[in-house]
Write a structure and sequence with these properties.
single chain; 8 strands; about 25% helix
């Protein structure tokens, strides 16, 4: 892993084709280990974050629904949102969730017209046994800064932070700091934050906290979560016999 960061000046989303998604678990693990060599936890490019996107995926009755919400900063104005629903193909396998969510996420991201400066994911970044959570995996695919903000822990050791908003403790893999347990509201359960790609942990914590205004989850991520749940519920209801 390198700290040298190379930036690209492009106006549209840069979608790579790094690998196939319908692979057996052994091949999926091999892909994760190979992609981990491309992780680049460099500081953000020195300019204001003008557009932040958030991604959430919901599952129900054999369907996967990805939602993307793009907000203009710093006024938190929603400027674009898209959803996509497909048949769920890949089984639920812990540590391989990107192979279940990745295809619908990427196809949904292809629908947006706005190139975000950063994408926030409901999932893990490098807090993963092979450092390849959803935020990291898709961050490498898109060559964009990404943050993982999960509601539950997956990997590593940590202690619970104090009850005051803004406090945090580190998540460690042995002696390496890989993430943070962040309190985003007083006396409310914390979230689990980690860098995805092209960003540092310190920046990930600071930005996540900045985006939490009234709720436990960052505003963009909460909007994407509500949108994915609602879109999938309405889709399934529309398929029922009248």
């Amino acid at each position: 892993m390198t700290n040298k960061c190379i930036f690209f000046t492009i106006t549209a989303m840069n979608f790579k084709n790094l690998h196939g998604w319908n692979v057996v678990p052994q091949e999926a693990i091999r892909i994760q280990k190979s992609l981990a060599k491309r992780i680049n936890l460099c500081p953000l490019k020195p300019h204001a974050l003008k557009r932040i996107a958030a991604v959430d995926v919901s599952f129900r009755e054999g369907k996967s629904c990805a939602a993307v919400c793009v907000f203009r900063m710093p006024d938190f104005t929603l400027i674009e949102q898209k959803t996509l629903i497909i048949k769920t193909v890949y089984p639920y396998i812990p540590t391989l969730l990107t192979f279940r969510e990745g295809p619908v996420v990427l196809e949904c991201l292809k629908k947006i017209n706005t190139r975000p400066d950063l994408i926030l994911f409901d999932g893990q970044g490098i807090v993963h046994p092979r450092r390849m959570g959803l935020a990291t995996h898709i961050g490498i695919w898109l060559e964009l800064p990404t943050i993982g903000c999960a509601k539950t822990p997956l990997f590593g050791t940590f202690t619970i932070p104090p009850l005051q908003k803004g406090t945090f403790t580190f998540i460690k893999n042995r002696h390496e700091i890989i993430g943070a347990v962040l309190r985003t509201r007083n006396n409310i359960k914390p979230v689990f934050v980690s860098a995805g790609n092209r960003i540092t942990l310190q920046e990930s914590v600071r930005i996540t906290l900045r985006l939490c205004r009234k709720y436990r989850l960052p505003e963009p991520l909460r909007a994407a979560h509500i949108l994915s749940k609602t879109a999938l519920k309405n889709h399934i209801a529309s398929q029922l016999p009248q």
